Amino acid sequence: MKGPVRRGSAPTGAGIAAKVSRNPPAIWCSEPMRLDQVTVGSTDLPRAEHFYTLLGLRVIVRTPDYLRFECPSGDSTFSVDRVGTVPADEQVTIYFETEDLDAECRRLQDAGIEFDQLPADMSWLWREARLRDPDGHRLCLFHGGDNRRNPPWRLETEG
């Protein structure tokens, strides 16, 4: 067989069955990986700063071409980089969790933020609302609670 073989795969044919683990071991990093930061582009940093500050994020770095925010809980950060244009076909949705989604959405509406979808219960056991930031990035404010990481249909880990 030519070319690399990924872990968990095997050649097929001649009576050899392929076995692929649903939860392959994390062989690509020596330490557990965590999400640290998400960065989006903006054509107007002051406008982006105002919007994300309204969401409750706190600015910790401000330069002429970059903003970094600290999330209100946890140790993740969110940043905005100055760009000439934001692609119209942006396919990312950024999720921010809040304990009291309905109160947070009312607060944001009172501050002039418009929503594409007001808070609603979803079939995946979350309550969520959808909106866009001033540059058109899709955002989802939600409350998932324990169902975020441990839904009833979570796959069992091997081992």
From TrEMBL:
This is VOC domain-containing protein. InterPro entries: Glyas_Bleomycin-R_OHBP_Dase, Glyas_Fos-R_dOase_dom, VOC_core. It comes from Nocardia aurantia. SUPFAM superfamilies: Glyoxalase/Bleomycin resistance protein/Dihydroxybiphenyl dioxygenase (SSF54593). Coiled coil: none annotated. Pfam families: Glyoxalase. It comes from the Bacteria. Residues 34-144 form the VOC domain.
